[in-house]
Here is the input.
Amino acid sequence: MDWLGVTIPQMVTLIFTQNFKNMAYPTNPIYKLVKDPSTNTQNTVLGMINGIQWQIPFNVDNTHYQDYLEWVEEGNTAEAAD
Here is the structure.
């Protein structure tokens, strides 16, 4: 499917890239907290999982978020939000 001459997957990638292009990605530790720019509250964590960058919502039903909470319980600390 095209929209303005760009396929939808390319458009999603472009939007994601434009919204997060200035954000530093987590390096060490593997998680970084993210603030919602409209509310200035932390509502997401970026995670590096198997070499893939994931944006993980604060949702207890999300398995990646459950892994993050377990990682924190082990005494780890996520990188602070920008």
About this structure: Residues 29 and 77 are 7 Å apart (CA to CA).
